[in-house]
Please model this.
Amino acid sequence: MFFPLSSLYNINCSVDVQCERKEKSGISPGITVIMNNTVDLPGKHPVIEALRAGRKCRKIVFYEGIEKNPRTREIEELAKNLGIQIQLRDKEHFEEKFPHINHQSVYAVVEKRPTLEIEDLIAEAGKLNPNPFLVIMDKILYPQNMGAVIRTAECAGAHGIIIPKRRTAEIGMSVSKISAGAVEHMMLAETSNIVRAMKTLKKNGYWIGGATMEGATLYTEVDYSGPFALVVGNEEKGIGPAVLKECDFRISIPLLGRIDSLNASVAAGILIYEVARQRGFQKAHGQNSED
Model:
């Protein structure tokens, strides 16, 4: 699914413009702090998907000794068509900038990823499908899990992701890299209160299911045909008590071995694809995958 982020989020500012804001703590009152409005996005897939999705890009940087392949040529072609500057830098530059990330010898300097309000996500998802499917991540802390869940959700035709503003993995370069750029094609909403967001979803006709092992219904016995939101919990503690209480029902996956739990992203993947299966494997825009 591809849609221009610039039009969806009404972004009119240039990536060269820096955002001004006043810091409320740690800095004397009245001092304006200039915050750069761009981030570095490493990896071939994240760069390609960011350009395809319309994320505003200041420049693309290649390692000067990079070997050309279909992916690098695609990046060059996209950059040429979009009028984006390409630079070459040495090995030391990449090692200093990305000491712990597999950058694949390329990165883009892009505008920070915007997010939606819950009400806007509901409205936009409703335009894509009369029975939208959303995924709520309740305090997922590890970028590996968040990126994997987002990638699976995008591949399975989900229409949006809801995450808390605090106590969660940041939607940054690690999540983008792990999601293979899928984050560029998913509508994201942030909320300061997951429970309040769930109440808003319910007022708009959504049913909400939480992935848990306690007092739960087998995941294949639940009807996911209407507007539905799946809640995936924290890696160690699962779904928080208040969030779990707000769920309409609880969903479980049978464990048949000696280990008593699944990785959060693996469990989410199983549940997400069960939703997709029951819906006839519809694409995010509502057409059947065979069309």
